[in-house]
Amino acid sequence: MPKKVVLAYSGGLDTSVAIPWLIENYDAEVITLTADLGGQNERLDVRERAINAGATKAIVVDGKRDFVSQFIFPALKAGAIYQGQYTLATALGRPLIARYLLGIAHQEGATAVAHGCTGKGNDQVRFDLSIAGMDPSLKIIAPAREWNMTRDEEIEYGKKKNLQLDVSGKNSYSVDENLWGRSIEAGDLEDPWIEPPENAFTFTASPESSPPEPVYLQIYFERGIPICLDNNFLEGIDLIQTLNQLAGSHGIGRVDHVEDRLVGIKSREIYEAPAATVLHIAHKSLESMTMNRDQLRLKERISQEYAEHVYNGLWYTNFHQDLESYVESSQRFVTGNVRLKFFKGKCTVVGRNSQYSLYRHNLATYDKGDSFDHK
């Protein structure tokens, strides 16, 4: 009897080809797991595509609420931005998908799990370490690391297996997206001298074509978590989606980054993260009002450590729990309002206030009412 393998399935080329490849090379019964983390391009036909490719069962999990409460907001409170540029959308999503993958594997009695990551990227490490850390008895299979096929060879293999494949020219991009952001790479973007073309972006308008007048927005945070836009209380998912649309329409959130991958190479990455960009800017501004100098200095170091830990796939570690505990403590008084201005690709803080503010006008002013002891 074939052994059961649960495959993390996106519906794209790599994971679609992986289904018949696993059946052929591992004599496996393949069950697919697709986690909806809020990407705009989530395939509505993902179940049908998986079954047509040979899967015996296709499971789809709505993970948006878990993603926001257990991954996005903790990372926001931590100020986690890798190398000062990347707000970690994909890196935060992988440990959650790995957890879902593990749960389905236990539920279905599978002896192995699989993912579509190559041997060149970061995601293989994030999946492998998360799964091995939670259940080292499960075998991990990474077909794309084993088959060593080029993209053209994958397409040819898929055609032989009569798969439904959405493929385009050689300059098409590799894209991953969720609520927290969108990453774009490959194709002509691999030349770091070339300006990213407009067709690479979908979350954001170009700053040049954004509205001619600025817009102002107020965000209210409670203990480091955004809960209100312009006096309207919103659930996390709705708040992030609203900010993605509004900030994206003003061209905010584009990042062109040559980053250091975990595997030891530099890679040119394009990111779109309107909501993440806005919330990190606002959150940091509020911290500057409510945390003292020593707290801010240490928090800066913790933020960097946290970001690198997430980027390197180490979410399910004791050290991450230690970092999380410090971050949670640091947010006790990060409550208040931040006023922002969106204009032509820029998000600027133009006001902030808090009931826990350490700013005192009578101490800061040089005018009448100055109560600072100059002696």
Structure characterization notes:
By secondary structure, this protein is of the alpha/beta class. 40% of the residues lie in helices and 22% in strands. The strands form three sheets. The chain has a five-stranded parallel beta sheet, with helices on both faces. Strand 11 and strand 12 form a beta hairpin. Helix 1 packs across helix 7, helix 3 packs across helix 4 and helix 10 runs antiparallel to helix 11. The mean pLDDT is 93.
What is the tally of beta strands? 14
SSE topology string: EHEHEHHEHEHHEEEEEHEEHHHEEH
- Compute the average pLDDT: 93
Distance between the termini: 86 Å
The assembly state of the depicted protein chains is single chain
What fraction strand? 15-25%
Judged by helices, strands and strand pairing, the structural class is alpha/beta
Shape: elongated
Radius of gyration: 23 Å
Please report the number of helical segments: 12
Report the sheet with the most strands, covering strand number, pairing sense and barrel closure. 5 strands, parallel
Low-confidence spans: none
Numbering strands along the chain, what is their spatial order in the largest sheet?
A: 3-2-1-4-5
- Measured as a percent range, the helix fraction is 40-55%
